[in-house]
């Protein structure tokens, strides 16, 4: 016999989840019990609901989807920031919230954890704005199709969904799950539109001599990474990658021509995009940050954009197309156009080898990244928090198989601590390394305790540059100073009597090397290495980027 809660658990398990993240509250306790009845689905606890949402977001990066279960209002509204992030980052995170008893709706009753008004719909209304599907379950008979609709839509759209379950319905009997294929079935491309788009794109390419590919972050959401390689290999052209899509095209591929990010591109990438006569954009997102304050935005008739569900260039626009189908179709028909690759080979500069600093010399950013680079192996995932960690991460060369995670569209500081936790829960076989600034860490630091609880051997490089350095470079003021913490010392507090986390403080290269050695040997918990560097010791790219972004922010209002 199924209940609303066990039905939900069955569906989460059937779509491939092995875990769900949760924070308890009286409106979801019975629901949590019901979820626990499913032995294929482990319940993983978080310190608060914001972290719970971000943990699920990180898990979705590793496993393709995720679920976070919270209580009403006081929990749900905290989780909402992470759900906005999942929307912006194209990740199907299912937010499940317990809710007041269905008998308390449309009555004179006031309920705790609410605004002390009779409105119990506000969380649902907010969730509707930030998800692709939101349902409120107030009848057990309706629950199966409501749950299926929310999950199916999230998986198809690669966006978060919201399921609210009145607390007295979690254990109410309902229908048993029917075949999961109804949820997993993908809509296929419209054959006519697909054929026309491919043929028009072939004509477009026939007329060009120097195309370049530009990979964007929606390529992964479209599940089209393999097909992008196929197209690249048919064309033979240079392949550049946007910062938010780092690792979505293998950096050890012979056609990889670096990160295109306007003025702060990796060496040769901007030159090759500027030199090209056409840019094929695959799943790209151009915003003020990724265009470096609107200074680097491929546009006009020489740009062909293939997005998750449509293809557009010049005055053509084809809808109802899966990016995957378009790319593999085009790969089988496109002409060879390798001029940009030939040119890139001429201009490319080999990787700069940084000279090791003296072991007792004061730690600098350059020495820190020099020591992190060799830790990256085929099974590493590097997670970079918003801040100079973006730029430090961008500069790392990724061996084949290595993955890179960044939350560049949403850019909410604090994301990386729980996202790293969630990612590590979801991919126990990978070595997870996080680069996190001191300011960001202060938002969500307590989730390190959950890494300790689950004995996850994550390595955190905590960059203590004494403040919000990226903001300092955009626009400085007293608000960019933060209270210093004993970051390494926190680990002892989180360990309490039963944890095996390690915390180290590195003030020079020698101490950092020792700490890295200990981190690699610690298999029983996370290792946090606090790297103490100067407040202004940031990457040169941050300086250039910050100047441009500040200029974009400072544009005067249009005269009325
Ligand atoms: C803010 C940012 O210490 O990194 O390398 O020192 O910059 P750096 P830190 O983690 O500081 C981060 C800080 C304050 N951004 O420089 S990027 C504004 C902001 C945001 N998200 C949220 N609040 C404020 N991005 C949730
Ligand atoms: Mg900082």
Cα radius of gyration in angstroms: 24 Å
Number of helices: 22
- Strand adjacency order, main sheet: 11-10-9-12-13-14-15
- Major sheet attributes: 7 strands, mixed
Which structural class do the helices and strands define?
alpha/beta
Overall mean pLDDT:
96
What is the distance, rounded to the nearest whole angstrom, between the alpha carbons of the first and last residues?
65 Å
Bound molecules: ligand DPX, magnesium ion
Beta content comes to 15-25%
Task: Give start-end ranges of low-pLDDT stretches.
Answer: none
Total strand segments: 21
Q: What level of helicity do the residues show? A: 25-40%
**What's the shape?**
globular
Structure in words:
The chain is α/β, with parallel strands linked by helices and about 550 residues long. About 40% of the residues lie in helices and about 15% in strands. The protein is built from 22 helices and 21 strands. The chain has a 7-stranded mixed β-sheet with strand order 11-10-9-12-13-14-15, with helices on both faces. Strands 3-2-4-5-7-6 form a 6-stranded parallel β-sheet, with helices on both faces. Strand 6 (about 135), helix 6 (about 145-155) and strand 7 form a beta-alpha-beta unit. The longest helix is centred in the middle third of the chain and has 16 residues, at about 190-205. The chain starts with a strand and ends in a 7-residue tail after the last helix. The model has no long low-confidence stretch (mean pLDDT about 95). Magnesium ion binds near residues 387 and 469.
